[in-house]
Design brief:
Helix content: 10-25%
Radius of gyration: 19 Å
Structural class: alpha/beta
Number of helices: 8
CATH superfamily of the largest domain: Dihydrodipicolinate Reductase, domain 2
Distance between the termini: 8 Å
CATH architecture of the largest domain: 2-Layer Sandwich
CATH class of the largest domain: Alpha Beta
Strand content: 15-25%
Strand order of the largest sheet: 7-6-8-11-10-9
Number of domains: 2
CATH topology of the largest domain: Dihydrodipicolinate Reductase, domain 2
Length: 321
């Protein structure tokens, strides 16, 4: 790679758009030259936008542009809502701009790969300028489970406790939600989680999921049960869950941090700078494996996921100068 790639961030004020701004600041591969926002933010300097994250505001000397004024960059990272993404993202791809998206509308569409680089890198072979990160809830499920394919996965059950930030910034400023009065139902989440897990595993197996919102700011916590086709041991399961990391700027030292106790948001949310899934409370009973896992939904599950995917695309020469 020679020099850094010029990139645009699509989303100025949402949580994922601002995570992108935070994580891409002074990135060794990518240089942010444009941030595109909603009509309410167009024309504002970056420092004038309300900053919604707990991390310090990065110092971009950039005027927020409209979606129709995105310059000819190499890469665009999209945190757009589906209805906007459906229009903007294909138009950028048609201009020769590589688009890495968090929009669920493009997941599992033919020709647009849905990829976690450590899980299904081979799916990038179909890449043609447009790729998606996964649903943020599937990360703490699939990264511990993918290695268990060696045991012959028969079925999976999942129960999630998903943070408020998974629904956007407004719930984080809702006193009732923060105090515990939050609707636990997440419409359509179970279907998306099941479909994406099967796709990433490359297996059409029975999967049951129950997805719930909880009054936590960040972090998606999952409890999973996996039935496999033969007896196994705790030692073998722990070894299979420790999948290799990648030597990329956003790669954590460990994809999965295996612990004995139950993961907690207080201790483990920011493991690997938010890019590591913490897996614990693993129990093995003959051919049934149970575990709990936690990952940072707006970092590994969203903004960091598309950045890691773009880094992977560059190193695999899917993107060249």
């Amino acid at each position: 790679m020679t020099g850094r790639y010029n990139v645009a961030i699509l989303g100025a004020s949402g949580l994922v758009g601002q995570r992108l701004q935070d994580l891409l600041y002074d990135h060794p591969m990518f240089r942010v030259v444009a941030i595109a926002g909603s009509p309410n933010s167009v024309g504002l300097m970056h420092e004038e936008i309300e900053w919604r994250l707990e991390t310090p505001r990065p110092r971009y000397d950039i005027l927020i542009c409209s979606m129709s004024d995105i310059p000819d960059v190499d890469i665009a990272f999209s945190a757009l809502p589906n209805n906007v993404a459906e229009v903007v993202e294909p138009s950028l791809v048609a201009r020769g701009i590589h688009v890495f998206s968090n929009a669920s509308t493009f997941r599992r569409i033919a020709g647009i790969p849905l990829v976690i680089p450590e899980v299904n890198p081979e799916d990038m072979h179909s890449y043609d300028g447009h790729a998606c990160a996964t649903n943020c809830t599937v990360v703490p499920v699939v990264t511990p489970i993918i290695g268990l394919k060696d045991l012959g996965i028969v079925s999976v059950t999942i129960h999630t406790r998903q943070a408020l930030s998974g629904a956007g910034w407004r719930l984080l400023f809702d006193e009732e939600a923060l105090s515990g009065n939050v609707n636990p139902l997440i419409p359509g989440e179970e279907e998306k989680l099941i479909a994406e897990l099967k796709y990433l595993l490359g297996m059409d197996i029975p999967v049951i999921a129950s997805c719930n919102r909880v009054s936590e700011k960040d972090g998606h916590f999952v409890s999973c049960g996996v039935e496999v086709s033969r007896k196994t041991s705790l030692e073998e399961v722990q070894k299979l869950m420790q999948i290799p990391t990648l030597n990329l700027p956003s790669s954590p030292d460990l994809v999965n941090n295996i612990i004995d106790e139950k993961p907690t948001r207080e201790e483990h949310l920011w493991a690997g700078n938010g890019m590591t899934t913490t897996v614990g409370n693993i129990r093995v009973d003959d051919n049934i494996i149970r575990f709990d896992a936690l990952s940072h939904n707006t970092v590994r599950g969203a903004a960091g996921g598309v950045i890691l995917l773009a880094e992977f695309a560059v190193t695999e020469s899917h993107i060249t100068k």
